[in-house]
Specification:
The chain is an alpha/beta fold and 474 residues long. The protein has helices at 12-26, 38-45, 49-61, 90-94, 103-115, 142-148, 158-172, 187-198, 217-222, 238-248, 269-281, 321-324, 337-349, 356-365, 370-393, 420-428, 458-473, and strands at residues 65-68, 72-75, 120-121, 152-153, 156-157, 181-184, 204-209, 225-232, 235-236, 253-255, 286-289, 314-319, 331-334, 398-400, 408-413, 431-432, 434-435, 445-449. The strands form five sheets. Strands 6-13-12-11-10-7-8-9 form an eight-stranded mixed β-sheet, with helices on both faces. It has a four-stranded antiparallel β-sheet with strand order 14-15-18-17, covered by helices on one side. It is globular.
Length: 474
């Protein structure tokens, strides 16, 4: 069953991983089965035990295997199928309808249903409907829609792409050709397409830590490993990033430089330039997730995309989904023309066709005085940020970090940790928040969607945060 490995065929531990995965997929090893001992596997593969252990530990991190002290290694009975390298159903993995609901999200959902109006949901990832711009969309006959389909090509609906291009060039000083822009079903789909093109299963990328990327099933679905890099006040720690590049053989760096989710930090211009310099040195592409820039309270030159520094090596991801709500997923990706063409082909191959009606709808957004409408949204968000700033000044336990844009606020404290048990207790108490443990880092921090606060519920927020403070100081 097992074959000896050869160095000339690639990394030894990866060959071992692939053999084990192949045996599982073929059905010769089943979920719950125990593998041979590390020593015996080493003999079969013709390698030392430490190399076998490395491969097994990698498979455990991917969720393929589990281990029991004193008992050995077993195929994970519930998780292994998600990460089968050659046979992942990409359509299922990317579609929000099929994303798995984890324990915390399920807890939030149940609390909202049972408590209804008493539950204060600051966990949600969208702005409330009343805050979304009131775009008006014309009606189209079937004949008109079919006629517009002639404007579709592999990269998307051409009128929409032209409008996105003009908007980004005028607003964010981005320069690119039309063939460098691909329309996608939201920002997450754009990132997913990139990962499938540049990575093999099990390879790793660097992300800021804490990061909302740890919440996305697409990374597990693709077998991508995330290596969290801590941040300081200017952004991602470049020394730590450099260490991780050497240690983990990273293939890309994925950053959220403007109003980083969950901390709200804005990467300094100096840090952006140094990041570009470091990634050039190691020939690593930068994937720039920039979906919150339209909601900036800062001057435009303070949040210019990293891609303006290095258009050749930065893949830029943007989206309208934040201002169109959950039902209209429109995003875009800008990169080298040949690379974008490959992504477009991958999108077609994975059967992610972009709906013509959705793209026509999105194109109308740019005809609807978008700058004035976004100005109004930013004004309302700024007013809401004042509500939570007043709360922060009224107490001394929690620290509210600067809100510079977006609609998330990051709150920290000194003292007891908000562990999973206490997090569930907070939900039962009627407060939906996102604790740091959801974002890949065990620190004293919570993210709240402050856009959902208003004069009607701010007193409820005060009282619930006071209870949380008491629990954290007991």
């Amino acid at each position: 069953m097992w074959e000896k490995v050869e160095k000339k065929q690639g990394p030894i531990y990866r060959q071992i991983m692939e053999q084990i995965m192949r045996e599982i997929e073929s059905g010769r090893i089943n979920p719950g089965d125990q593998l041979e001992s590390e020593r015996k596997l080493g003999q079969f593969f013709g390698v030392n035990r430490s190399t076998v252990v490395h491969a097994l530990e990698e498979l455990r991190e991917l969720g393929v295997l589990t281990s029991k002290r004193g008992s050995g290694w077993f195929v994970n009975q519930t998780e292994w199928g998600k990460f089968a390298v050659p046979r992942i159903d990409w359509r299922q993995m990317i579609s929000p309808r099929y994303e798995q609901t984890d324990w915390y999200e399920q807890k939030i959902k149940e609390a909202k249903q049972s408590q209804k109006t008493l539950f204060l949901d600051l966990y949600a990832s969208e702005m409330p409907n009343e805050l979304l711009p009131n775009f008006e969309f014309p009606s189209y006959s079937l004949e008109e829609i079919l006629a517009e389909e002639k404007e579709m090509d592999l990269l998307g609906y051409t009128p929409l792409r032209n409008k996105i291009k003009r908007y980004l060039e005028s607003k964010f000083e981005l320069t690119f050709s039309l063939n460098q822009l691909l329309v996608t079903g939201g920002g997450q789909q754009a990132i997913f397409l990139i990962l499938q093109t540049i990575l093999s299963a099990g390879e790793g990328i660097a992300v800021e830590s804490p990061s909302f990327f740890y919440r996305l099933p697409l990374f597990k679905a693709s077998g991508t490993r995330l290596f969290g890099i801590p941040m300081d006040e200017e952004g991602i720690d470049l020394e730590k990033l450099k260490e991780s590049i050497h240690k983990n053989k990273l293939k890309a760096v994925l950053v959220n430089p403007n109003f980083q989710n969950p901390t709200g930090k804005v990467m300094s211009q100096k840090r952006r330039e140094k990041l570009v310099e470091l990634c050039r040195q190691y020939r690593l592409p930068i994937i720039e997730d920039d979906v919150f820039t339209d909601l900036s309270f800062l001057k435009q030159d303070e949040v210019l995309p990293i891609r303006t520094i290095d258009p050749d090596n930065v893949l830029y991801v943007g989206s309208l989904s934040r201002i169109l709500g959950k039902t209209t997923k429109i995003g875009w990706l800008i990169g080298p023309e040949t690379f974008i063409l490959q992504l477009a082909k991958a999108q077609e191959m994975m059967e992610f066709p972009m709906n013509i009606l959705t793209q026509i709808t999105a194109a109308n957004v740019f005809d609807e005085a978008i700058d004035l409408k976004m100005l109004d949204v930013r004004k309302k968000l700024k007013e809401k940020s004042q509500l939570i700033s007043i709360w922060a000044e009224s107490q001394s336990f929690f620290k509210l970090h600067s809100i510079l844009g977006g609609y998330y606020a990051w709150i920290t404290w000194d003292g007891k940790k908000l562990d999973p048990q206490l997090a569930e207790k907070v939900v039962d108490m009627g407060l939906g928040i996102a604790p740091s443990l959801l974002f890949g880092q065990d620190i004293n921090g919570i993210r709240i969607n402050y856009s959902r606060l208003d004069e009607a519920n701010i007193s409820l927020f005060y009282s619930k945060m006071k209870i949380l403070e008491q629990w954290l100081t007991e």
